[in-house]
Amino acid sequence: MFTSHITPEANLWLTLLLIVWAALLFGGFIFGKPNTEGTRRMPTWTRLASSFTLVVAAWGWYFIAWNYHPAGGYLILINTSHLVTFGFYIAIGMTLGFIGDIFMARKNVMGGIGAFAIGHIAYITAFVRFAYETLAFAHISGLSSIVAAWVIWLIIGVIAWYITVYRTKPHTPLHWAALAYCLLLS
User: Would you call 94 exposed, middle or buried from its count of C-beta atoms within 10 A (0-12, 13-18, 19+)?
Assistant: First the structure.
């Protein structure tokens, strides 16, 4: 299902993890009951198990890619494989997202936001490095394109924040924290 460049066993492992993740996620939505505040439908255990399954899949993908490259585990240090480097940062991001889910399950919103923010920095690093390395591999000078796209997304983020958050009254420090987080995600 994933790629023909890995063994059938590795492909089966990742496919099974995807099925488990989907069953936990959608099963929680379908069979879960709304909580007393009406904000959640999935039971906490299905949310956490779903998130943990993604962590296992991300690290599994990373180690599968790591084992199939001739340079082995030194790839992170010497950066010779886009796929392995990308997988490493995605796995870090997934792990931090799971930590954020644990914080949120314990009603520690700031801990959750912090873990999610650092996780998103890992995702951003993965995508920017992958884009830059892909453009460099194709002998295209893409730094100006990357910066232009980033600025456009920052502008879109500020507009979206203004429409959805800032126009509500009263303004609290959380409104400004939401702007910082929105800009990070943008």
Answer: buried
